[in-house]
Amino acid sequence: GEDVEQSLFLSVREGDSSVINCTYTDSSSTYLYWYKQEPGAGLQLLTYIFSNMDMKQDQRLTVLLNKKDKHLSLRIADTQTGDSAIYFCAEMTTDSWGKLQFGAGTQVVVTP
Amino acid sequence: DVKVTQSSRYLVKRTGEKVFLECVQDMDHENMFWYRQDPGLGLRLIYFSYDVKMKEKGDIPEGYSVSREKKERFSLILESASTNQTSMYLCASSLIGKAAFFGQGTRLTVV
Description:
The structure holds two protein chains of two kinds.
Chain A: E1 4-6, E2 9-13, E3 18-24, E4 29-37, E5 43-50, E6 55-58, E7 61-66, E8 71-76, E9 85-93, E10 100-102, E11 106-111
Parallel strand pairs in A: 2-11
Antiparallel strand pairs in A: 1-3, 3-8, 4-5, 4-9, 6-7, 7-8, 9-10, 9-11
Chain B: E1 4-6, E2 10-13, E3 19-25, E4 31-38, E5 42-49, E6 56-57, E7 64-70, E8 73-78, E9 87-94, E10 101-102, E11 106-110
Parallel strand pairs in B: 2-11
Antiparallel strand pairs in B: 1-3, 3-8, 4-5, 4-9, 5-6, 7-8, 9-10, 9-11
């Protein structure tokens, strides 16, 4: 079955770059997503990448996809205190009717 | 903007009560989902629906049921609440094959 794994915690200094990593197992993934969850809130879609792409850049966010290793990463440039949140990666597979399989989430703490 | 609205932010219920969590979306999405979020476990799918009156079990359907009588509304029902159902519940909706948009969540405490 599908399995999505992330490290649970990342501490980064304000102004540095953050890199959040994710691995997945299902080779039939169509889209891979990054969501952000601030305390007490729902999930906000940050960005996504189609499975036939290697990279996608959106302002401070860069998504890298290594299909051979089934590895996905999210880089946040110039990390700010407002970037402190839990970040979830999720995969959608071709036979899933649009269901998403989520990782456990990475808690990012930005220190001054 | 897509709006997914959950009827309550916080709920406290007693063991054995029947609990209804309501979710409404305003973007005519076919798919609607109920997830449960627990620390260290991420989001786990309880049920989803791809059309009115259609429902499919997710990964953890035991102890839950759902209702989708109208396209915009998807209800999660706890038939007899138990303390192990204390959790954050998240509703989402999507077009088929597209990204899901989430509500703000309902934090349910069963005492």
